[in-house]
Amino acid sequence: MSDDAFAIYNLLKDDPRYRLEAYQFVREALAYAQDTLRMGHESTGEVMDLEGEKPIPERHLTGQDLCEAVRQYSVDQFGYLARVVLKSWGIESTGDIGSIVYNLIGIGWMKKSDTDRRDHFDEIFDFEDAFEKNFQFSQEG
Length: 141
Fold this sequence. Notes:
Elements: H1 3-14, H2 20-35, E1 41-48, E2 55-60, H3 63-78, H4 82-88, H5 94-106, H6 127-133
Antiparallel strand pairs: 1-2
């Protein structure tokens, strides 16, 4: 078993609140924020793209930025079912996003700055409001 697989296996065993899909989705939402939404500010380092093929400038997001990116990416991927899908993975609040991020930091799959704190993810928005009450349907045609 590779070191990465072993790390995530142990994480899932030690903290069973979230499914593997939740961790994958938050990492994808980070890439979506940086690449599609152009969120964050450039920091001094470089990271590899999702395919691990080429280095790209590292862009740092705040907890609020990442929560907003998760919201937008969820709606983009799942539409009105976003809240249901996230809940099936154990994500029911922005605080859960923070827990996932800090779990990923703990195994070296994400980074944080000296000013980042876990509570920066708490109560950024209400899931019911964000995914149901304020959901906008569009007519494409």
